[in-house]
C-alpha cells in the first residue's frame, strides 16, 4: 500500500488535458501514504513527500493545499487499496473467515507503520481532527457492507443489528492491533479468523 507508482515510460502519451495532473496527484498520494506510514502524520512533512515524488514543495501545493487535505486523500487511497485487495482475495476463493485477516497481513508485518496508522485512528476520535468525518463515514460504509448479508450472524434467536456487527468487528481489529504491538511474537490474526467464523453463518 505504500509503494511508489512505477515511472511513466519515456515517450508515453497521456490522454486528455488533465491526464498529467491526475497522474501527478496519484504519485503524490502514494508518496504521502509512504510518508505517513514511515514517519506518522505529525512528523511527516509536505517537503519530504515532495522529495519522494521528485517535485518542489510549491508544485505539491498546487495539487494539495495542506497536509490535512493530503491526509484525507491518502486515507481514501488506503481504503481503496484494501477494498481492491479484499476483492482479489475473495475471487481467489479464500475461505470467508480469512478475508479480513489476509487484508491486514501486510500492515501487521510492519509494526512501525501499524503504530503510525493506529495513532492517526486514535487522533481522529477527536471531532475536531481533520480525519474524524472520514472515519465516521468509513464506519458507515462498513456497516452497509455487513448489513448486506456478507457477514450474517449465527441464528441463535438474538437479533444483532448492523451497527452492533460493525462495532464488534472494528473493536476486534483495533484491539488486535494493540495486542500485536505489545506482544509481537504472538500471532493475533488467527484470532480474527476464529472470531469471524464464530459470528458468521456458512453462507457468509
TrEMBL record:
<keyword id="KW-0805">Transcription regulation</keyword>
<feature type="domain" description="HTH tetR-type">
    <location>
        <begin position="22"/>
        <end position="82"/>
    </location>
</feature>
<protein>
    <submittedName>
        <fullName>DNA-binding transcriptional regulator, AcrR family</fullName>
    </submittedName>
</protein>
<dbReference type="InterPro" id="IPR009057">
    <property type="entry name" value="Homeodomain-like_sf"/>
</dbReference>
<dbReference type="Pfam" id="PF00440">
    <property type="entry name" value="TetR_N"/>
</dbReference>
<dbReference type="GO" id="GO:0003700">
    <property type="term" value="F:DNA-binding transcription factor activity"/>
</dbReference>
<feature type="DNA-binding region" description="H-T-H motif">
    <location>
        <begin position="45"/>
        <end position="64"/>
    </location>
</feature>
<dbReference type="InterPro" id="IPR050109">
    <property type="entry name" value="HTH-type_TetR-like_transc_reg"/>
</dbReference>
<dbReference type="InterPro" id="IPR036271">
    <property type="entry name" value="Tet_transcr_reg_TetR-rel_C_sf"/>
</dbReference>
<keyword id="KW-0804">Transcription</keyword>
<keyword id="KW-0238">DNA-binding</keyword>
<dbReference type="InterPro" id="IPR001647">
    <property type="entry name" value="HTH_TetR"/>
</dbReference>
<dbReference type="GO" id="GO:0000976">
    <property type="term" value="F:transcription cis-regulatory region binding"/>
</dbReference>
Amino acid at each position: 500500500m505504500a509503494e511508489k507508482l512505477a515511472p511513466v515510460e519515456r515517450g508515453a502519451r497521456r490522454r486528455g488535458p488533465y491526464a498529467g495532473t491526475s497522474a501527478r496527484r496519484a504519485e503524490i498520494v502514494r508518496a504521502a501514504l509512504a510518508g505517513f506510514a514511515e514517519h506518522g502524520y505529525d512528523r511527516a512533512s509536505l517537503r519530504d513527500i515532495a522529495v519522494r515524488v521528485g517535485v518542489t514543495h510549491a508544485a505539491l501545493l498546487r495539487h494539495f493545499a495542506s497536509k490535512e487535505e493530503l491526509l484525507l486523500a491518502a486515507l481514501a487511497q488506503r481504503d481503496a487499496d484494501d477494498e481492491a485487495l479484499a476483492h482479489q482475495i475473495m475471487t481467489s476463493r479464500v475461505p470467508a473467515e480469512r478475508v479480513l485477516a489476509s487484508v491486514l497481513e501486510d500492515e501487521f508485518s510492519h509494526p512501525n507503520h501499524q503504530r503510525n496508522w493506529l495513532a492517526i485512528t486514535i487522533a481522529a476520535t477527536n471531532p475536531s481532527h481533520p480525519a474524524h468525518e472520514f472515519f465516521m463515514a468509513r464506519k458507515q460504509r462498513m456497516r452497509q457492507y455487513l448489513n448486506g448479508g456478507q457477514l450474517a450472524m449465527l441464528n441463535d434467536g438474538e437479533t444483532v443489528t448492523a451497527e452492533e456487527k460493525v462495532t464488534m468487528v472494528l473493536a476486534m481489529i483495533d484491539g488486535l492491533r494493540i495486542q500485536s504491538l505489545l506482544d509481537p511474537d504472538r500471532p493475533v490474526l488467527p484470532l480474527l479468523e476464529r472470531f469471524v467464523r464464530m459470528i458468521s453463518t456458512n453462507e457468509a
